[in-house]
Design brief:
Order of helices and strands: HEHHEEHEEHEHHHHEHEHEH
Distance between the termini: 112 Å
Structural class: alpha+beta
Number of strands: 9
Helix content: 40-55%
Number of helices: 12
Strand content: 15-25%
Number of domains: 2
Radius of gyration: 29 Å
Shape: globular
């Protein structure tokens, strides 16, 4: 009993000391902890529930003209134009009002064999979107429509409907571009093949009550930062140039490593210090393989483009009686593989985001993941895995299809629109 009492007494004394120390130091400990805990909660409240909730977002359907004989480069000019929404947000506005730069959602939809192109934006960006689109496609029609995601049951999946989906990312480093539209060309005739042709054919083959939703949520990025940090480093590595010069601390660590690394060798034989000999390197064009030359050229070209932080999301849903996963999933992502080759980047599904579940409570956990995916798509949520795409890459994936895209399910403008004659008499 005496031992137990002594132990309790020691514990009480220790707690007393801790309480005494805390009484004199709490104002140094608690404020930083509260700051770290409540800062993200405050930002989420002000950004998501105050600023973003106050925005009025609209959905615009893009109806392409009948005869487009132009390349996706026009769409690249469109992305350059909407990048103008990027402005400097004062930190006070960010923390006190939750203000952020508005983004755009580019959506390619296949619905029971019909193909639609949509752009979702804020109502005050509508004029910007229309101006930049009409500048490139004067005969296009742009119509404000209801959100198509409301045309499916509120709770998905259910007894009649099934869902499969995932987020997508780039296979390699962001600065390395995917296979862009200027690489889609016939070797003999030199005629450009529309990069979207294969994807649109899959969307056009969907059966009744089958839908594919493909979403690109793009946030403009400040120019001159991304390429300096990642792209130039990749170019230096690929070209075989030395990296950044070592600092004093780096040189010291390297020298210490050399000394200790040679201590064991010195026990058996004299340490050799090879003389550094300058060697003349062969010209770069002779040191790189043809594939490496193409890769370096594409990388340098991509770094000259304006870029967007991009969220890629994919959903295939439909009624169970017509469910065709080999077409809706395998066919679509098989067509997406055309945007990659051995010397470029590619778009791939992120395994962790797939709608699947293993081991225990499989059905419950699967339904939860599917419903979260649908909710995030409907909310146009841009959190989670994202990548950086240039205007050329975005224009390759999302553009108005030309005449070579023969899918009959593409909705097109039926007649060319024009203004009234200038000399029309008006009473």
């Amino acid at each position: 009993m005496n031992i137990i009492s002594a132990s309790f007494k020691d514990a009480a004394d220790a707690m007393g000391i801790v309480s005494l120390v805390f009484a004199y130091t709490w104002y140094f400990i608690l404020p930083p902890l509260f700051y770290l805990v409540f800062k993200p909660l405050w930002i989420e409240q002000m950004r998501d529930r105050t600023f973003i909730a106050s925005l009025n977002r609209i959905l615009l359907e893009l109806i392409p003209p009948q005869n487009i004989e132009k390349s996706p480069k026009l769409m690249e000019s469109f992305f350059n134009g909407i990048h103008g929404v990027l402005t400097t947000v004062p930190r006070s506005d960010f923390y006190m009002k939750g203000r952020i730069i508005e983004n755009f959602s580019l959506e390619l939809v296949g619905d029971s064999g019909q193909i639609h192109f949509y752009i979702r934006c804020t109502d005050f960006d509508k004029a910007l979107v229309e101006a930049n689109l009409y500048a490139q496609y004067p005969d296009m029609q742009i119509i404000e429509v209801e959100d198509y995601t409301k045309n499916v049951p509120l709770i998905l999946p259910n007894k009649k409907w099934e869902v499969w989906g995932a987020d997508a990312v780039l296979e390699g480093p962001d600065p390395l571009p995917i296979r862009t539209y200027n690489k889609f060309q016939e070797d003999i005739t030199g005629k450009m093949i529309d990069p979207l042709s294969s994807v649109l054919e899959v969307l056009g083959k969907l059966g009744p009550n089958q839908k594919i939703w493909f979403q690109l949520i793009v946030d403009p990025i400040k120019e001159g930062t991304w390429e300096k940090k990642e792209g130039q480093k990749m170019i230096a590595e690929l070209a075989g140039r030395a990296g950044e010069p070592e600092g004093l601390f780096d040189r010291l660590l390297r020298d210490i490593g050399d000394v200790f690394g040679n201590l064991f060798k010195a026990l058996f034989k004299p340490v050799e210090f090879p003389e550094e000999k300058e060697r003349e390197e062969a010209p770069l064009e002779f040191r790189l393989t043809p594939g490496e030359k193409e890769q370096l050229k594409a990388l340098e070209e991509n770094l000259t483009k304006i870029v967007f932080k991009t969220k890629i999301r994919y959903v295939y849903l439909g009624k169970k009686e017509n469910w065709n996963k080999p077409l809706g999933v395998g066919g679509f992502w098989g067509a997406m593989k055309q945007f990659s080759d051995q010397h470029s980047n590619g778009i791939t599904i992120k395994d962790e985001t797939k709608t699947y579940a293993w081991y225990f409570m499989i059905k419950t956990r699967l339904r939860y993941r599917q419903r979260i995916l649908i909710k995030r798509y409907k909310d146009r949520d841009n959190t989670g895995y994202r990548c950086v795409l240039s205007t050329a890459e975005l224009a390759t994936i999302f553009h108005m299809p030309d005449m070579s895209a023969m899918a009959p399910s593409i909705t097109r403008v039926e007649a060319k629109l024009g203004g009234a004659p200038a000399n029309l008499p008006v009473k």
